[in-house]
Amino acid sequence: MTDSPGTGQCDCGAAAGPLGECADYYYAILAEEQADPRMYQWHAVVVCAYLLQHPSRAHEKYLDVQFRMLRLYLDQGLDALLRVTAHQVARNKHGVRSGYDMAPFAAYGPIPQGGSPGSFRAGFSGMPFRDGSFVSDGHAAYGERIHAIAEATVESWTSGTA
């Protein structure tokens, strides 16, 4: 099942929250982070986790690098991921080569075969949205929630179960 209005549950297995299904949360997060540079620092984590939790919305050929990016983030932290993503962007802008520089991800194994595990202990539709914001209780709390979603995503993919 894919995220679709009115179904009450999306393809990641999560029930809809007050804003709707995971896609509604995802697009609301993307919109809010455009006006908030502190929130935007988790952009890569948000995108990777969302697409890995909803692979029907992703390009299959990128899921492996997205999985490795989340693993790098969980292992080395946000600053390390921001350095790697800045390197990838700079590399692409200068036309050095197309595609990702996989060297930063060499320590992390490929995405497990067999497809999406289908459900996750933490997801987007569980994100609190108060006073019109995902960061109403602070950026640190928002970062902790995004971190928990990233952990749940990698955990489910590596264990094959929710």
UniProtKB/TrEMBL annotation:
What species is this protein from?
Microbispora maris
In its UniProt entry, what is this protein called?
DUF5946 family protein
